[in-house]
Amino acid sequence: MCSKSTFSLSNRDKEEIESLVKAGHFTSKSDVVKTAFRMLKERHPEYRTDIAVEMFKDGKVSLGRSAEIAGMSRESFKEVLEERGVEREIEARESSEERIEKTVG
User: Fold this and answer.
1) 42-75: pLDDT as tens digits
2) Residue 65: its pLDDT value, please?
3) TM segments (predicted)?
4) How far apart are the C-alpha atoms of 98 and 65, rounded to whole Å?
5) Can you give the pTM of this predicted structure?
């Protein structure tokens, strides 16, 4: 799935990107940006974790998919969520049910 995005670049960056395409290194300007973003995530794995956490918090991806994006096991990703104070919906629902049981019980 692709969507169109608009962002600003300096004139020099724009010219350099166009030069890479013209030289045949890439098929399009979009290809340059996609490759640069992929390489950025490879060089900084912590960015993948940040992306996964934010997408999970926004409800855009499941726990399993988030762990996959972060490049870690589900259990490791659960630990990251806990360290960052992110409640998983199931846990939030369970704690609400526990409070109700304590109140009623």
Assistant:
1) 999 999 999 999 999 999 999 999 999 999 999 9
2) 97
3) none
4) 28
5) 0.74
The token duo for 2 is 């692709």
List alpha helices for the chain, DSSP H. Answer: 11-22, 29-43, 45-57, 63-70, 74-83, 89-104
Orientation angle between helical segments 74-83 and 45-57, nearest 10 degrees: 80
For 18, residues 6+ apart whose C-beta sits below 8 A from its C-beta are 29
Torsion of CA 47, 77, 54, 7, to 10 degrees: 30
Tokens describing residue 51: 């992306």
The tens digit of pLDDT for each residue in 73-82 reads 999 999 999 9
| Domain assignments of the chain as residue spans, ordered by start | 11-43, 45-105
User: Left (φ > 0), alpha (ψ -120 to 50) or beta: where does 24 sit?
Assistant: left
pLDDT of residue 88: 82
Q: Which of 23, 90, 32, 33 is nearest to 56 (CA)?
A: 90
Which has the closest alpha carbon to 63: 48, 47, 75, 46?
75
